[in-house]
Amino acid sequence: MTARRSEFRETRARTASNRRKRRLFVLDTNVLLHDPTSLFRFEEHDIFLPMQTLEELDRNKKGVSELARNARQASRFIEEVMSRGPAAIEAGMPLQRSATDPATGLLFLQTEAIEEPLPASLPTASGDNLIIGVVASLHKRHRNRAVILVSKDINMRIKARAAGLAAEDYFNDQVLEDTDLLYAGSRLLGPDFWEQQTTQVESWKKDGATFYRMHSPLAAELNINQFVYTEGERAFNARVRSVEPGLALLETVRDYGNPRNAVWGVTARNREQNFALNLLMDPEVDFITLLGQAGTGKTLLALAAGLSQVLDDKRYSEIIMTRVTVPVGEDIGFLPGTEEEKMAPWMGALEDNLEVLNTTDGAAGEWGRAATRDLIRSRIRIKSLNFMRGRTFLNKFLIIDEAQNLTPKQMKTLVTRAGPGTKVLCLGNIAQIDTPYLTEGSSGLTYVVERFRGWGHGGHVTLQRGERSRLADHAAEVL
């Protein structure tokens, strides 16, 4: 009997020690609105939800926006946790949904009024300040345990830290901590690559391209549809076709910089544009992401490839173009007209690029260009993201512009609209994110670049050099 009591005491002491090591995270409402699954993203640590957070969830649940959907989903997750076990709310409810679920902590809800005096500079009428008061009270109650506020609101984190409390951003949605490590889609090979890196090379020609099967330890670092190149007089540009342990198959790329290979009158002006056109014109590649700063030619290349394959090759039935409608300055309010007419002010980039593409044939004359312009517009559809849910696109060339402003969940909703024979393009610049609470590391564009990396029917290219004008290039560097 004494041995059992001793064992019980040791177990209880060990449990108490583990509880002190486990942190207690207090979630702000914007974390749940940003990612409803955040409840299950804190592994062995515990979560506390203030009553103010639940009130704000309730206020945001109405409507058909992404924010309202996330609020409703977060509420469903909380109810699911509460209905799973008979444990009292004060004792904490287990978050773990299955034996393999890493969320082994407990969920606590505020069940009593917490009156913690705040500094006079923080008005108690503010919802943010009420949550900070809850964190301060928990910090006093749990002296031997880390109590941390998690919020996407920078100012709220600043106020909490000014009050002497620990506060953090929500990092679990970050695909990358350092965007400099983001997959570029191309790789520079050393000048001594052929002499040092390869132990055996086989080569042959097929359909106008040269193939190289190389045995090299470098093969483990390559991805399918990644581009490799060397610089110098004997420049080598190739695309990785397949990768096996210690073995890689390379195919030389087609030179779209040559006017004979022009795509709807557009030729590649640099190496990365040539890589992009090789992906865009390949019918076996279903998903392509193009990153680059303003003026690198993302939209122009996408439209040229789309028009060529819709009107000349008859590979796709039409081009569908959409983008996130996040204004840079003040919102201009409601717009009249049909769906396409409402989207027209957001599609200035489309109009500018169509004007360039329509003037590539100088011998057509004014009447010829007018007829071409009408033909082009009959094959391009402008759609709003608001009506994408539930749709299926068959045999379409889908272009998602300004994709850096999409959340990972919105990106998933869009990409899964693709039906048989559809190619999806995501264009964007992660340095120009306008959506609140999104960062370069948590953008939906960064998300798909990393998740589709190495897929046999997907490809990515980061365009490096601007080709808009010398003024635009200089402004991008110095401003």
Describe the structure.
With 479 residues, the chain is an alpha/beta fold. Mean pLDDT is 81; it is low at 11-17 and 327-332. It contains 15 helices and 18 strands. A six-stranded mixed β-sheet has the order 3-4-2-1-5-6, with helices on both faces. It starts with a helix and ends with a helix. Helix 8 (271-280) runs parallel beside helix 9 and helix 13 crosses helix 14 (444-451). The protein has three domains: 17-168, 3-Layer(aba) Sandwich (Rossmann fold); 180-252, Elongation Factor Tu (Ef-tu), domain 3 (Beta Barrel), CATH 2.40.30; 275-478, Rossmann fold (3-Layer(aba) Sandwich), CATH 3.40.50.300. The protein has helices at residues 2-21, 29-34, 51-59, 66-84, 127-141, 154-162, 193-196, 271-280, 298-312, 339-343, 348-358, 365-378, 408-415, 444-451, 470-478, and strands at residues 24-27, 46-49, 93-94, 106-109, 147-150, 166-168, 186-188, 200-206, 209-215, 227-230, 236-244, 247-252, 287-292, 318-323, 380-382, 396-401, 423-428, 458-463. The radius of gyration is 28 Å and the shape is elongated.
